[in-house]
Amino acid sequence: MRRTRRRIALFALPTLVGSVLMATGPAGADPAGPAAAAGPGRSSLEVPEAARLVRIKLTGADMLDKVTAAGFDLEHGLQRVPTGIEGEAVATAEQVTELKALGVEILGDGEGFAWSEEADGGLQTLRTTAVQPLAHEETVRIARADWFTTKGQGFLYVEARTTQGAQTNPVVGMQLENDSGAGTPFGSARTMSRFVDSGQYMFHRNLFKLDARPSQIRVTSSTGGVATGYVSNWLEDGAPPLTANPAYKWDFVDGYRHPQQLFGRAEEIARQYPDIAEIVYLPNKTNGYQRKAQATIGGTGQSAVVVSSAAWGHEGGNDITVEFVDRPGANLPLAVEVAGKAIRVLLAKNASGAAASTAAQVAAALESQSQGLVDRAHPYRTNAGTGIVAATSGPVALTDFLDQKRVGAPEGEVPRGPATIPVLRIGKHRDGRNPGVLIQAQDHAREWVPATTSLESAERLVHNYTSDRETRRIVDNTDIFFILSNNPDGANYSFYNFASQRRNMTNHCPDDNADPARRNSWGVDLNRNYRVGSAHDGYSGGSFSCVSDTYQGPEKLSEPESKNIIWLVEKYRNIKFMMSVHSNGGQLFWQPGAYIADGRITTPRPPLGDEAFYWQSAARILSQVKAHRQTVVTPENVGGSSDVLYSSAGNVREDLYYNYGIYAFGWEVGGSVYNPATGNWQGGSFQPAWVGDPDLVSGHSETMEYANGIMEMFRVAADWGKDHQKPTSQLVPGGGKYSGSVDVRFETSEPATIYYTTDGSRPTLESPRYAATEFREPGQVFHVTETTTFRWFSVDSAGNIEQNYDPSKNDSRNNYRTATITIAQQ
Fold first, then answer.
1. How far apart are CA 144 and CA 124, in angstroms?
2. By CB neighbour count within 10 A (0-12 exposed, 13-18 middle, 19+ buried), where does 162 fall?
3. Contact, 289 vs 402, CB < 8 A?
4. Which numeric CATH code is attached to 140-230?
5. What are the helix and strand counts (H, E) for the chain?
6. What local confidence, expressed as pLDDT, does residue 406 receive?
């Protein structure tokens, strides 16, 4: 039997204030009311474990591995600081004790936590200009040195790697120095933080607050290696968003939206704007916002019986009652009586007249003699059910626990039963001629801002099509598919029952986890249910436990919600871009998304050209986010998701990229915002207050600024579709005669993949691809020691091939690029 993983969800306390709802307790709190707590005649075993918000600190990645291996699921919001990893957790008292035993430091309770100003998370970009002298033998390399400003404050992010970084005795340290501008000396030495993930050395990195922009930096290893590099700018300052046009219409969404509101508005948009919008209905219906009616009846432990109805609660299961009856007499057999929806279990008596029915016996009798009313009956959790069952004080009603709404939740009954998910398709030409963009929001139910961000983007498209030239260019040249909530069942459960619900509502649990106290722990993590890099294949970040927040499901693509995505991209093959919108954390990432922990073996990394295209697109998208109110998604939070966040086995992005060639982004909106009043970074949450300080964390501000980014992604796709410019490339320092060995590399005019040979053969698409020196670093360096001829061609992200070369044909033109490095004999 697999060990049950403990659920520790990292998020901030939601205070939901807005036009839709207001929560009255921390995420993780169950709804108030008789169905949520043990009432008269109900067992205390039905009450989910209480949890509280705690701030935690781990000493580093090694402890993170231990905590994960112990069965704790750590969610978004982890932040790496120079002395470890910090986060917020909702945990039970028992879980807090277990965390302490593992060495986790509990920093305190409550909200208001702000990340350290030196919080670092870790990424570099291939477009950095922090280039040191070209050499294959450097022991220290600067991957990136980025400068950015936000709210009047400047920051320098540096990431460097040493070839001796894996050394642990003694641990290799690194120090950073920077100048104060061109021509000034290096100074202000600072110690950099060493980052190890899954036991593997990654790099040293830090984010530093500075008063002035430096021109250069110098990084020194404790083993003697030294590298210098130039500082580049991260994101564009003052890049005007579409909203800068006074005539541009925006700010349409005025509060959080539950799935019925989202889907209703999508269908209304299609009716209002039929020339540019329509609805595509996904074929696989969800399991539905519905549950079997249940009760845990009897004493505790071995004497408790868990009863589940055959019918869904709203279809009759909630009308069933079960009563355990004590009869006078001796030597009485166990029997079951059924009258309508009332079940009476007549408990057995032994020869002395004492109760004699065990929980296991009662469960078996209910399953076989309830005339089909009961689908499952079993002892409580892992108990054998050997305890003697006591009579109840009267009939116990079964309930699906969906009849109580949280205080402040939206009015109106939630539709029960399977749901059909509509896709809002927007584009002037919806015939496959234009590149398609898929925006998928709310895979995870508790993430409410992604849905409003996506809806705001759709509203901007249709309202500005006739009046704004840039919007018209987007709609005329792209084909956009919005899934405003890919998890409507779970989202409804988050709105109406349990704010912290992450997964869908499909219960795959066997008897040991099927009792109603586990109701907030059921469901499949839809973003672990895909086919590439799955936990089924040994990758980390997906759980086999049905009560884990990262439960991957019983098999790949087991869930209708994930099957729908595959159906969509297979039916509409023009979809070339995808953004899976999540919260919170402020990351923007792509492949690789998962790794096998033993050796940290990732899924294949994209070719260098694709990686560069991702970085170029990210810079455009994030510059538009920044333009709204100076929110910066920092460079350490951009790149391959397994490097930025954690390993997420079986995620949707990798399935779409590797199986369909789609540029698939993942976006954790709602990241940390710099607070100049405190000098700290303020972390976000899954459900921030809708209205708040416009310069800090609020649902409204996040919706508007990240909608800017989604609009820019549409422009990226439109530009990609019109890109017919062929790339150019060169070998640096180039062909010629050299007196000794030389180091060379390729450079391209735009993000492009280079295929090359050095054996005299024609380069083809099967030839070696020019790769990075190391993951998340610029291109490799060739150390040439003898005369060598390079033959190559480049292909950009849109498929344009340099010099019209056709790698599939062996014609006489041979119009590939060539350069010969001649090494003179000494």
1. 5
2. buried
3. yes
4. 2.60.40
5. 12, 42
6. 58
Distance set, CA 154 to CA 69, 209, 619 (Å): 39, 6, 18
Annotated catalytic residue 159: no
DSSP summary character for residue 774: S
If we measure between CA atoms, which residue out of 178, 10, 19, 219 comes closest to residue 107? 10
Helix (H, G, I), strand (E, B) or coil at 487: coil
Contact 562, 595 (CB under 8 A): no
For residue 766 the two structure tokens come to: 């099967």
**Predicted pLDDT of residue 81:** 66
For residue 128, what pLDDT is reported? Answer: 36
Give one word for 70, left, alpha or beta, with left for phi > 0 and alpha for psi -120 to 50.
alpha
pLDDT score recorded for residue 378: 97
Strand pairing class (277-281; 232-233):
unpaired
User: Of all residues in the chain, what percent are helix, strand and coil, respectively (each to 5)?
Assistant: 20, 30, 50
CA–CA gap between residue 735 and residue 788 (Å, rounded): 9
**Average pLDDT, consecutive stretches of 10 residues, N- to C-terminus, the chain (826 residues):** 35 31 34 45 83 76 64 61 70 80 79 31 32 64 95 95 89 94 94 88 92 96 93 86 94 97 98 98 97 92 95 97 97 98 98 97 98 97 95 95 69 87 98 98 97 98 97 98 98 93 96 95 96 96 91 97 98 98 93 92 96 96 95 94 89 98 96 89 88 90 97 97 97 95 95 97 96 90 96 97 92 89 85
Whether the ω angle into residue 635 lies within 30 degrees of 0, i.e. cis, is no
- 153: tokens are 């404050």
In this predicted structure, what is the pLDDT of residue 75? 55
**Distant-in-sequence, close-in-space partners of 331: CB < 8 Å, separation ≥ 6:** 349, 350, 351
Beta-carbon contacts of residue 113 (< 8 Å; ≥ 6 apart): 12, 55, 88, 107, 683
Whether this prediction's pTM lies above 0.70 is answered by yes
pLDDT for the residue 190:
94
Which DSSP letter does residue 166 get?
A: T
What's the gap between Cα 222 and its chain centre? 36
- From the candidate CATH numbers 3.40.630.10, 3.40.50.1000, 2.170.190.11, 3.20.20.70, the one assigned to the domain spanning 242-287+414-721: 3.40.630.10
Tell me the two tokens of residue 51. Answer: 């949890």
Beta strand ranges found along 231-286 (DSSP E): 232-233, 277-281
Return d(Cα 339, Cα 319) in angstroms, integer: 12
Q: Tell me what pLDDT residue 695 has.
A: 86
Cα 710 to Cα 64: distance, rounded to the nearest angstrom: 33
Return the half-sphere exposure (C-beta side, CA atoms, 13 A cut-off) of residue 479.
18
Taking alpha carbons only, the member of 734, 718, 826 closest to residue 788 is 734
Note the CATH number of domain 729-823.
Answer: 2.60.40
- Residue 28 has a pLDDT of 35
Q: How far apart are CA 741 and CA 731, in angstroms?
A: 15
- Give the Cα-Cα-Cα angle 362, 363, 368 (nearest 5 degrees): 100
Q: With the C-alpha atoms ordered 67, 69, 72, 73, is the resulting torsion angle positive or negative?
A: positive
From the candidates 46, 668, 705, 712, give the one annotated as an active-site residue.
Answer: 668
Beta-carbon contacts of 385 under 8 Å, excluding residues fewer than 6 positions away, are 302, 305, 358, 359, 360, 361, 363, 378, 379
Q: What amino acid occupies position 219? A: V
**Tokens 């501000």 sit on residue:** 701
- Give, for 664, the enclosing helix (H) or strand (E): strand 663-669
Q: Residue 58: what pLDDT?
A: 82
Q: How many residues belong to the chain?
A: 826
d(CA 756, CA 766): 9
